[in-house]
Every structure is written in C-alpha cells, then in structure tokens.
Amino acid sequence: MAQAMIMNSKLRLVVETGMDEKGQPIHKPKTYNNIRKDATADQLFQAANALASLCQHLLVGVERTDNFEIIA
Questions:
Q1: Where's the DUF1659 domain (predicted)?
Q2: Of residues 38, 71, 50, the one with CA closest to residue 62
C-alpha cells in the first residue's frame, strides 16, 4: 500500500495593502518556508496573527501548503 510522507510545509499570509483605482482591495502574499510539519492549525493561526501584528496592513488570509512524497 502506498503512503504519503510530508516533505515540507509553508505558511502564506495575505494582507490587504490598499485599494486600486476601481475600489477593489489589493492583496499581497508573504510566504514563510520550513514550517514545522507537525504544527497544528491553531498554532499556525496564532503565529500568523503574531506576525501580522508587526505589519501595518490588515491580515485577510492564512494558508498552509504541504508537499508530500508518495512512496510504495
């Protein structure tokens, strides 16, 4: 049976930096690599809010990306 082994994990914060000429929000992402593979969603959310508190922009999104290797 095949198994999935997590290779790496990334945390992506999306902040709103302003409005464009049409009044639509401008979103800018910031990605942090080498996130602990065993970090929980609550831990990542707390970390994202702590990092966002150091920024002057509004945090509008938090995403986690995991990459897996499928082995037999």
A1: 3-71
A2: 50
